[in-house]
Design brief:
The complex is a heterodimer of chains A (about 300) and B (about 425).
Chain A lengths: L7 H47 L2 E2 L7 E2 L3 H8 L2 H33 L5 H15 L2 H11 L4 H6 L11 H11 L2 H13 L2 H9 L4 H29 L3 H6 L13 H11 L3 H29 L9
Antiparallel strand pairs in A: 1-2
Helix pairs in contact in A: 1-13, 3-7, 3-8, 3-10, 3-12, 4-8, 8-10, 10-13, 12-13
Chain B lengths: L1 H29 L8 E8 L2 H17 L3 E8 L1 H13 L6 E4 L1 H9 L19 H4 L3 E2 L2 E2 L2 E6 L1 E5 L1 H6 L11 H15 L11 H10 L15 H16 L6 H4 L18 E5 L15 E3 L14 E8 L6 H13 L1 H7 L5 E2 L2 H7 L5 H13 L14 H16 L5 H17 L1
Parallel strand pairs in B: 1-2, 1-3
Antiparallel strand pairs in B: 3-10, 4-5, 6-10, 6-11, 7-8, 7-9
The chains are: A mainly alpha (about 300), B alpha+beta (about 425).
Chain lengths: ~300, ~425
């Protein structure tokens, strides 16, 4: 607000009175924020603090937590082979599922970008599994498809995938890959941001389609690729629902789908070792934080922001 | 700045008002509004709609006989019930009267959740078999009272068994005779004789008791060694390799429902199960299931026992311990209640009620009752309630056997793994 054209005395009163509505506005903002602030404090920060405390205790839900210091952590890292199995399973899954899912999402997005008719239909059709996929019901259908005597068994005669230790993890990974709709939509939006002149210029220079893809699409799309990669990696580390449903909550057969979160659930809610489960949760948080940081660090060398060109 | 203080206090007021609203909303739902000064008891159980209908009927009769008491009931499926109850108990909000499983008692009793019912004169236990009653005792206190009785059984498709020309199972048969029958059935019917019992802690317990041992000792430690378990798993693994029991892919699918058992899917001739839930096979086995006693030890020691199928307990911090005891007494000992409830929670444990009720039972209820009376007097006393850690060990047992049946570990390695984990669980 400008007060320069007003007499000094009036200016002072205006400034003083204009402060009041500002405070009131702040007050109003707090009123409207309060449900969120309360929610964050009571439903997120407080439980996190409690969980951090519990991770240093032995707590079975019934008896008071009993302080054990770092025992949960040392037990996890040195005495629990199943913990490491769950780490291995989760890493394998992240390494298989994330690149496959992003690759498929990109390929389909490229195909849809140049499509003249029926784009809307295909976009919805490919996006639908992502909406449905988070639900328990689709995971249960998935189990039925890959079960002994299920559709895949009938078509390929390979027996039930979810009942074989060597195949069950792949079945869960495929369920995730199939839900490529969300990254696909983001890729599609990114592709439409790339100026058409770049391709026209490249065509004039006689660049092949593959060359155009490598030299224009990938660099121009790299911020979106990076965004999807970070998001899907974080999600993949925390995968729970599909693993729970496909293995009927047990991480089987023979621990082949024992994901980190599933083992965490098993320790906390089946075996009543809430302290141990809390410690696992905190390690997962730190690992996801570290992986994200590493991704950000590497991104400097391969993510290209168009605005950098202006500098 | 004065403005800041105003803002802070205003914010604080808003927050306080918000909390007050929340608190009022919370206490409103749990209040005893509109009960007209009656004592209100919360009573929860797990089960199916049939059990719910009969329980509601019995509860309204109770309310009619005790005009000063109102009972609020709720029920859920077993898994949901188990988790909800654990959360309630952990939060100090256990229902006044609750249905309990064998495996919950020790954990809840040692966690101080359960009321000592032995001191409650309103609850009569004279008509309950002493051995069965003792299963609800922890540290010398009667924390839970059994409500129904069940036992394990070999449930089989009599038609196919007969067609294979194998002698039907008889009382007192041994595990070796059982194994011979499985091999013979497989040879004739070209499908496994039974579900692989290696994954079942229950079947292992029967086998173990047949050898004079038990899952747990009196002081709640492991009652067997890795050698015992390795022997059991070598026995079942050998049968699996011979094709006489179900293959690993089928065994790993078991989830407690009869629909997913090899017998239920038409892929085997027999199964092990508890007697009352075997009614589920009625819809799956043409001609219906037949019940036979479990195999016994080589010297004829029976491993099978009558197990309380479920218990009733009361919350330690209930405001109305006497009324809670009255409700439990009514559900267990009242003849009119028994007539309504029938065998919906297994065969009643009250001896006189059982005798009154048995002639009137129909259909599969009668099959179960007849099966139980055929075993009467020939079985050993049941073990005391399993220690707290056992809850998780049941799953561990299945999982470790998966490693055996998928041939990723030898029975000996898997048994050693199990015993190590079990010892750790029981210590904590």
């Amino acid at each position: 607000m400008t007060t320069t054209d007003l007499p000094a005395g009036r200016a002072r009163t205006r400034t003083a009175s204009s402060k009041r509505p500002k405070r009131q506005r702040e007050g109003a903002a707090w009123v409207f924020l309060s449900p969120w602030v309360l929610g964050a404090a009571v439903l997120t920060l407080l439980p996190m603090a409690v969980s951090l405390y519990l991770s240093f205790t032995d707590y079975d839900l019934f008896n008071a937590p009993h302080w054990v210091g770092l025992r949960n952590y040392t037990q996890m890292f040195t005495e629990d082979p199943r913990y490491w199995r769950s780490v291995g399973t989760t890493l394998t899954y992240v390494v298989i599922a994330v690149p496959l899912q992003l690759g498929l999402a990109l390929v389909v997005a490229l195909a849809l970008k140049n499509m003249k008719r029926g784009k809307g239909f295909y976009r919805s059709a490919f996006y639908a599994p992502s909406l449905l996929g988070a639900s328990m019901s689709v995971a249960l259908v998935w189990r039925a498809i890959f079960n002994d005597g299920g559709t895949v068994d009938h078509l390929l005669g390979t027996g039930g995938w979810v009942n074989r230790p060597g195949w069950a993890l792949l079945a869960v990974a495929l369920l995730t890959v199939w839900q490529f709709g969300a990254p696909m939509v983001i890729f599609l939006a990114g592709l439409q941001q790339i100026p058409g002149e770049l391709y026209e210029a490249a065509q004039v220079d006689g660049a092949s389609r593959w060359r155009q893809f490598l030299s224009i699409t990938v660099p121009m799309l790299s911020p979106v690729i990076f965004f999807n990669l970070v998001l899907q990696t974080i999600q993949a580390f925390q995968v729970f629902t599909p693993a729970f449903a496909v293995s009927a909550g047990k991480g089987g057969p023979a621990d082949s789908t024992l994901f980190y979160t599933l083992y965490l659930y098993d320790r906390g809610f089946v075996a009543s070792h809430m302290g141990y489960a809390s410690a696992m949760a905190w390690v997962l948080l730190l690992v996801i934080g570290a992986v994200t940081a590493v991704l950000f660090r590497t991104s400097r060398s391969w993510v290209f922001y168009a605005s950098e060109g202006d500098r | 700045m004065p403005g800041d203080r105003t803002m802070k206090s205003r914010t604080a007021a808003v927050v306080l008002a918000f909390c007050a609203t929340l608190a009022a909303g919370c206490s409103g739902s749990g209040g005893s509004s509109g009960t007209g000064g009656k004592v209100v008891l919360r009573y929860t159980w797990w089960g199916n709609p049939d059990r719910a209908a009969r329980t509601e009927q019995a509860v309204s009769l109770f309310e009619k006989k005790h005009p000063g008491i109102q009972v609020q009931t709720s029920f859920a499926g077993y898994d949901a019930y188990k988790q909800k109850l654990a959360t309630q108990a952990a939060g100090g909000d256990a229902p006044d009267v609750m249905q309990l499983d064998y495996r919950m008692i020790d954990q809840y009793a040692s966690g101080g959740v359960l009321l000592d019912l032995g001191k409650r004169t309103a609850l009569r236990t004279d008509d309950i078999d002493a051995g069965l009653l003792a299963t609800g005792v922890v540290d010398g206190k009667q924390y839970a009272v059994p409500q129904g009785r069940g036992t394990e059984t070999v449930v089989y498709d009599a038609k196919q068994w007969k067609a294979a020309g194998v002698a039907p199972p008889a009382q007192g048969w041994t595990w070796d005779e059982w194994a011979d029958a499985m091999r013979a059935l497989t040879k004739k019917s070209h499908k496994p004789g039974a579900t692989d019992p290696g994954q079942s802690e229950d079947a292992f317990e029967v086998w173990l008791r047949g050898r004079g041992k038990a899952l747990y000792t009196k002081d709640r430690r492991l009652g067997f060694t890795a050698d015992d378990l390795a022997r059991w798993w070598t026995f079942t693994d050998g049968l699996r390799r011979a094709g006489a029991v179900s293959p690993a892919e089928q065994t790993t699918q078991l989830d407690g429902s009869v629909e997913n058992t090899p017998l239920g899917r038409g892929k085997a001739v027999s199964d092990f199960n508890w007697d009352a839930p075997s009614s589920g096979y009625l819809a799956l086995v043409p001609g219906g299931p037949t019940l036979a006693p479990m195999p016994s030890g080589a010297d004829g020691t029976p491993g099978q026992y009558f197990k309380p199928s479920m218990f009733m307990g009361a919350a330690a911090d209930t405001g109305h311990p006497d009324q809670a005891a009255q409700l439990i007494d009514f559900m267990l000992n009242d003849p009119e209640a028994a007539a309504i409830l029938g065998a919906t929670r297994g065969i009643p444990v009250n001896e006189s009620i059982r005798q009154d009720l048995t002639p009137d039972l129909k259909d599969f209820d009668k099959t179960v009752a007849d099966f139980q009376s055929s075993l009467e007097g020939s079985l050993n006393a049941p073990p005391q309630a399993p220690p707290s850690g056992d809850n998780a060990l049941q799953t561990t047992f299945q999982r470790d056997y998966d490693q055996v049946s998928f041939e990723r570990m030898s029975p000996r390695e898997a048994a050693r793994n199990y015993v190590t984990e079990a010892k750790a669980e029981l210590r904590s």
